[in-house]
Amino acid sequence: MKYIFEVRIKEGHTAEEYADIWVRASELIQRAPGARGTELHRKIGDPSTLIAIASWESKAHRDAMETQHDAEIDEIIRSAAPFVEVRPIGEFEEPQWVVRPAAESRKK
């Protein structure tokens, strides 16, 4: 499953500031069972808007990670709170199947 959220950087701060914090928290969160990686993307034309995508083996794995409050992770996330607004977009199931053009398959 995918957990997706939007991050808006407040004026006077940069996406790079948030990215440093995000990487530190993500490295710890990704140690949890079922974690499959994270990505952080900057919106084209709006460097103060980011989207984060966390991949998990299942919703149950992500929920289990959320119930195990890690003080270090909580502190890292709190350190970004003064200069970002985070809006969860939602939890999404993996697609039943994926169709890709043949040319894209050859690139891998």
Q: What summary fits the major beta sheet?
A: 4 strands, antiparallel
Summarize the amount of helix as a percent range: 25-40%
And the CATH topology?
A: Alpha-Beta Plaits
**Shape annotation:** globular
Order of helices and strands: EHEEHHEH
The count of domains is: 1
The CATH top-level class label: Alpha Beta
In terms of DSSP E residues, the strand content is 25-35%
* Largest sheet, spatial ordering of strands: 2-3-1-4
How would you portray this structure in words?
There is one protein chain. The protein is of the alpha+beta class. The protein has a single domain (2-95), classed as Alpha-Beta Plaits (2-Layer Sandwich), CATH 3.30.70. Helix content is 37%, strand content 34%. It has four helices and four strands. It has helices at 15-29, 59-67, 71-80, 102-107; strands at residues 2-9, 35-43, 46-56, 84-92. It has a four-stranded antiparallel β-sheet. It starts with a strand and ends with a helix.
Topology:
Layout lengths: L1 E8 L5 H15 L5 E9 L2 E11 L2 H9 L3 H10 L3 E9 L9 H6 L1
Antiparallel strand pairs: 1-3, 1-4, 2-3
Helix pairs in contact: 1-3
